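In keeping with the milestone schedule agreed at the kick-off meeting, the structural modelling team has produced records for the first pair of proteins. Each record is given below as a sequence line and a structure-token line. The laboratory manager (R.T.) confirmed that both were archived under the project's standard naming scheme.
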Amino acid sequence: MKIAIVSGKDEGPTKLNAFDNALSKAGIGDVNLIKVSSMLAGNAEIKKLPKLKAGAMVNCVLSDVTSDNPGDEITAVITLAIGEELGCVVELHGINENVDDLVQEAKDMVKYMMNKREAEIKELHVEYSTAKVENIASVISAVIYLNDEIVDG
């Protein structure tokens, strides 16, 4: 299984536009995202996000938050643990919460998930995006499940 980890942040004139702009900054703005639950195949490989086909149906675990309250600090976190047999992904977001606390909470949750499955963690990865809202802002972090059908070229 091949995956990519991405994040993005941006402002926009509406909440929808801010979210769309954040997706575009992450390189996933021109595809259809299908939210899936939090499981990975064993020994998942993390790759750089390739160019995706416009309109492709793309499976992902997505963390996102949008705010129109100027001054808010918004954060979207993705944490993943990869083991030999399987892997787990946790998404978490917050408004005006300490980034380090959110990251630690996500790490704790993914470690718990792996422990419950009696799966040893070989790799642990964290990706997050944070922004201070000026007018209307959105942040996203995501794990993108890659396959040949969605890659352009």
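The second protein of the pair:
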Amino acid sequence: MRDTILAIVVIVNVLCGILVYFLPDIGNYILLGIASIGTMLAIYDAFIQKKHSLMRAFPIVARLRWIFEEEREKIQQYFIEDDLNGTPINREKRSIVYQRSKREIETIPFGTQHNLYGKGYEFVKHSLFPKNHHHIKGERVVVGSDKCSQKYDASIINISAMSFGSLSKNAIMALNQGAKMGAFAHNTGEGGISPYHLQGGDLIFQVGTGYFGAGKTIEGKRVFDEEIFRLNAMRPEVKMIEIKFSQGAKPGHGGILPAKKNTEEIAKIRAVTPFTRVDSPPNHAAFSNFDEMIAFLQKVRDLCDGKPIGIKLCVGNNEEIEAMIKAFAKVNNYPDFIAVDGAEGGTGSAPLEFTNYIGTPLIEGLIFIDKMLKKHGLRKEIKIIASGKAVDAFDVVKYLALGADIIGMARSFMLSLGCIQARECNLDSCPVGVATQDEDLVGALVVEDKNVRVKNYHDKTIEAVKEVVAAMGIDTISDVSTEHIYRRDSNNEIITLKKLYY
């Protein structure tokens, strides 16, 4: 095959040369130049380069493989997948975010595309006497245990953790301004508080294992620093503090900021070396057992003058998690909330094995935390925030029914900013300026337009939740329970989630 390709290329080059000889105009010279470049490229592929065996066997032609491979995600998304089979978030779900954020028509014609008789199909049953959704209550929840002196009145839907570094400055500004306009909270992610977070929106200040914005580097090790932490935690925009143990996409690993995205500005905020890959440690240096952890949580609570303190984790070893909650109850000291991240959670960068095979999925993790808090008498004091690919109102209602008090959304709000799920977050080449530090791409994201879309998506989703709850004949969102959610099981029987999980 190599000889055949080389022969064809040479013949084309010779024919172009003959054409120029008899018709020496500019167009034919350009044609000859292209043919000559093709010939030299074929010779290079076949005889000079030794890195790619495929190119040596199929000069020039093999290069098409890399072109198609580079564009595979886009080809898949635009020409192959249907409305329901796309991953991580299918087109139907992406479309509802776009429609709600732009306040466009969000109804669908001609009936559902879902298989209502397939295993795993879930739904709620409506009432003969539905309520007026304008009168449905429960869209806000007060976070704060009896240990907390500055309780926070939170929306049931908030922006989940995404750092400046993972996201662009324009994306962070749009999210925070949208949160301000919609009166909901914006989690900073573990990268610290940047100027772009300080647009007036309520903040959940996340403190990860790298202690960015809450610590410093001593002899190459990141350590918690009380003064640095308090400087950020006492900002009026900060309403809650979240101590991150792990995230669903890479539990037990620690965060990853690719070197390309670690600009001088981001490195200054994080107090690290610019243009180097930044790996957060997998564990906290400030504590190593439950007693030390509880003492650390109390220290953090004292340093921020009693603001709500929480922990974020992806459920791993069940015995370990129960031992932690038991320790909270034993010493009568506990966090104000637990943010449960599912293994299906997203991230800008993670090892494949951690994303695919480590951590408990959200539903099982959420139910386990809910059960353990009830078992040890702490459920009334500790709120649960659930995060795991919630997009539409049914997702929200379902997670609330399974035990969540509040829902955290990350990728959904990225979509409201215009994310097209290009899946280039770790390459610094996000084409819509959401998950990149490339100045040209970042500039394409217009904050004054996207901030309104962030607010719209939040508000319209809350409205949709109220409509679903009203159709069920329920007056208050918090009254939704596992008795109200139904699933078709493997025996083709319809059962409640209460029967399935409780």
